[in-house]
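Journal club side-thread
Mid-discussion, someone asked how the predicted structure for our own chain would compare to the paper's figures. Pasting it here so we can look after the session.
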Amino acid sequence: MAATRRPPTLFRNLNAKIAAIPMILTALVVFVGGTAWTVVYSFTNSRLLPREKFVGLDQYERLWSSNKWLISIENLFIYGICSLVLSLIIGFVLAALLDQKIRFENTFRTILLYPFALSFIVTGLVWQWILNPQFGIQAVVRSLGFESFSFDPLYNPDIVIYGILIAGLWQSTGLIMCLMLAGLRGIDEDIWKAARIDGIPMWKTYLFIVIPMMRPVFITTLVIIASGIVRVYDLVVAQTSGGPGISSEVPAKYVYDAMFLSQNLGQGFAGSTMMLLAVIIVIVPWAYLEFGGRKRHV
């Protein structure tokens, strides 16, 4: 009996490949094409409308000599480091607590995840009210008799970025908790039983056994958090609009102001390109760890 001849690799799953053509074209034209267009025009002196008058690195020199841009980079660095560390720690701790098969787990999980369903604008406005010294936390504590209590981070230029961080953590921690909880539920129950039989303390089990096994979950979570950090904009606009002064500026807001308020497309494109570079710095190591590592172990 003659063996069935298999079609060439190019023609396998042909229907699925044809169906994917619109998506591929959209990605190439809209995303890749738009990105390339932005990078090219960042080397021009485009103002209100794009102009093909190239000025070399002038826009980037102006960008990095701007005090507003430097402050936005500093704020993004502070916000990013704190958000990465605290989101992972708080999210993992909450997931570990819920993983203990507590009562009303579904209720607690829903409550903790609910802030993620809100838009960043709503979250920013809510926390603007909560942190308002006239009727927020400070006013409530003072009404209890602690007249000297002071808590107004959104009105203090030195710590305003931490007030924005509070709102960001409140919204994003629930998602991190769910990702971590899914990772914990994927750990074989026999591992927990073996650790208890060997008398290994729970904290050592988490630190030396469970967390290393959850490496893919942590890497994916880090990429999600990092991509959100680079794009942070809504929280700042809703809470402070970049103030007091320019003390809470972030790169995304700088780009928006340059393009739509100052009508300087070239400067906005330069800022966008630097943000793209930051995303690439995050994505490339992730892709290497995810796909490069797999190839080595195949």
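Post-session note: The chain has a mean pLDDT of 87.
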